[in-house]
Amino acid sequence: MAVATIEEDIDFHDGTVDEDTYTYDDAEEFQYATVDVPSDEDEPVEETFQDALRTVQMQQDKDLPPSVKPVVTRLPEVIDDFVRNFLVKAGLEHTLETFETEWYEKKTQLAASGEGLDNLLVPDVYQQNARTMEELELVKEELKNTKEIAEKGKAAWEKLKKDRDFHRTSHQRVMQEKGRLINDIKRLQTQCSKYEPTILELRHKYESCMKEKMLVRLDRDKLTVKVQALENTIKDFENNKKSDPTPLKKEVSEKKKSTGETPWPAEDRPNPFKGVTFKPPNNCSSWGARQSHKGHAMSVSCIAVHPKTATAATASDDKTWKLWNIPTGELIMSGDDHKDWIASVDFHPRGTHLATASGDKTVKVWDFLKAKCVATYKDHTQGVWRACFHDTGDFLASCSLDHTARIWDLHSNRCRSTLRGHVDSVNGLAWLPFTNTLATCSGDKTVSLWDPRTQYCSHTFYGHENACNSVVFTPSGETMLSTDADGKVYVWDIREVKVMNVYDCGPHPANGLSVDRSSTYAALASDDCTIKLINMVDPKEGIKSLKGHEDSVLGVQFDPMGSFIISCGADTMWKYW
């Protein structure tokens, strides 16, 4: 029978075997010793394998010298140590013997085949536990952070849910209000459709009433003229002596001749500018303000150039008009007889008189030789915007806020014609050169041509989308230009009554317009503090701007020779370009 021998020390203090290697020798080589075996009665029944090993070791230690305990370096456990220690702790002696036998055989086979035991090593349980604990702590920390983030996300989600519910409630309320409004609109549309026939009927009645009113006004004006003539005749009769009837008849006849109406000029008069080509201004778009003069205490509303001399006339909201020398700006004459703002000035074709139109509902004619007002016309019922002399110098046209334009006879100082037809303020007018045709522009977005002799509107031009502010003719009389509050300039063909071109200088309103004698350039007074120059011959040049005013430009005028431009504005200045 083979007996196991212990080649290395066994540590019995903790009940484990550190490094045990058991070898089996033959029976002949083993030295037996006599051991007293106690009887079965003396031994405890539950003797363990450890007790037996301890007894054998104590017996051997008696004859051996004291051993030096070696220093043990802890190495990673291997499979056989792990199993062996487990079996020793569990007290499975027979199982341990069987394991030792089988393990020795297995180790011998592996050694003979050259294979090692490295693949049977297992990691240290304690190190593995430490690493596992560290990983567990990291996982716990991440779990804690994740919980905090989840709580924040939950709070945000709850807030979003509340906002969603609030907006959903608001949306439902808005939709309900929308439905009610739609129902109200439909009901109002139904009611309006019922009122449309009544409105149309009232409109027709209004138009018929306006026509009747116009006819009544015409009859009234005619009767007024007759009454004035009769009153003058009565006064003449009263002033004469009854004893001398013959000289009285002669004086009455002479008075009739002197107070008679001026006949209208012939319609077929030749236009000296028709068919004549003038040289356009040089580098007009590059002009600059050469002289600036402070003209009035308030806005300078209009400016005009004398037809024969280098003189300019200005009108202002300060109720005065002034004459200036060009370009020195020396004051020549002034007038202040108006009681409200002055909107317009115009020179007599011979340059001897000046006409002014004012917000006090009057038109005045001033004589430069007498240096005073020689005529005042008061038939307008509201402020007067413009006054313009006829080319013969015998008639003066004016337009007003009262929706009318009037023709005044300068010799009889009476209103010869009243032009009614616009439904809004008449803002501008101009005579067609060397004819008896007058053009008017109105806040009703139309431009009309009139025959003052018959008080009949011959043509009406439609196209403006806003109130018309001014109208002018080219010297040849073949083209008409008009401006509106959108800053647009419409070029009209008089013969064909249609639009030839439209120049958009907006969005600021256009306050005034002038054309040079060559009909090449048009100067526009704009509300954006600039003068717009439009080349009507070469569209490639585009629209140029002359800057110099500090406020809205209210008036602009080419001189008769086309060598310079003068302008005025709301900055109380007039400038020479």
Give a topology summary.
Elements: E1 3-6, E2 22-25, H1 49-61, H2 79-90, H3 93-113, H4 125-239, H5 245-258, E3 291-294, E4 300-305, E5 311-316, E6 321-325, E7 331-335, E8 342-347, E9 353-358, E10 363-367, E11 372-377, E12 384-389, E13 395-400, E14 404-409, E15 414-420, E16 426-431, E17 438-442, E18 446-451, E19 456-462, E20 468-473, E21 479-484, E22 488-493, E23 498-504, E24 510-515, E25 521-526, E26 530-535, E27 543-547, E28 553-558, E29 565-569, E30 573-576
Antiparallel strand pairs: 1-2, 3-30, 4-5, 5-6, 6-7, 8-9, 9-10, 10-11, 12-13, 13-14, 14-15, 16-17, 17-18, 18-19, 20-21, 21-22, 22-23, 24-25, 25-26, 26-27, 28-29, 29-30
Helix pairs in contact: 2-3
Major sheet description: 4 strands, antiparallel
Global geometry: elongated
* Range of helix content: 25-40%
Q: Give me the secondary-structure category.
A: alpha+beta
Tally of DSSP β-strands: 30
Sequence of strands across the biggest β-sheet: 3-30-29-28
**Which ranges are low-confidence, i.e. pLDDT below 50, for 5 or more consecutive residues?**
1-30, 39-46, 241-259
Number of helices: 5
What fraction of the residues are assigned to beta strands by DSSP?
A: 25-35%
The averaged pLDDT comes out at 80
The first-to-last residue Cα distance is 142 Å
Rg of Cα set:
61 Å
What does this structure look like?
The chain is of the alpha+beta class. 30% of the residues lie in helices and 29% in strands. The protein contains 5 helices and 30 strands. The strands form 8 sheets. Strands 3-30-29-28 form a 4-stranded antiparallel beta sheet, with no helix packed on it. A hairpin with a 7-residue loop joins strand 26 and strand 27. Helix 2 packs antiparallel against helix 3. It is elongated and about 185 Å long. The termini are far apart. The N terminus is likely disordered.
